[in-house]
């Protein structure tokens, strides 16, 4: 884990997230913790990552999500050089469509 990210405050936040028991609790918690725009940005990045893993083009992703090419590029960099967090979640949730190429 990134040493700049691993602080007691961040660890406490992650423990709080892990304590949530269902989607309703997630909605309540994240609505209190994040602004609407912050939460929508997180959701947009998650959707961008999913679409990149499904081999969608930047143009398709931008049109569907409204994300800028800079955001798409940043998410793509995380997918290629990050800590595999997106892929771990996608695998657990079986979120990626089986594409035949």
UniProtKB/TrEMBL annotation:
Gene3D superfamilies: TrpR-like (1.10.1270.10). InterPro entries: Trp_repress, Trp_repressor/repl_initiator, TrpR-like_sf, YecD_YerC. Pfam families: Trp_repressor (PF01371). This is TrpR YerC/YecD. It comes from Lachnospira hominis (ex Liu et al. 2021).
């Amino acid at each position: 884990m990134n040493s700049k990210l691993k602080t007691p405050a961040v660890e406490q936040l992650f423990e709080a997230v892990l304590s949530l028991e269902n989607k309703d609790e997630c909605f309540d918690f994240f609505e209190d913790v994040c602004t609407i725009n912050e939460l929508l940005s997180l959701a947009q990045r998650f959707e961008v990552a999913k679409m990149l893993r499904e081999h969608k083009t930047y143009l398709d992703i931008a049109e569907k999500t409204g994300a800028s090419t800079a955001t798409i590029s940043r998410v793509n960099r995380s997918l290629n050089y990050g800590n595999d967090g997106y892929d771990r979640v996608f695998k657990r949730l079986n979120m990626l469509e089986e594409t035949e190429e």
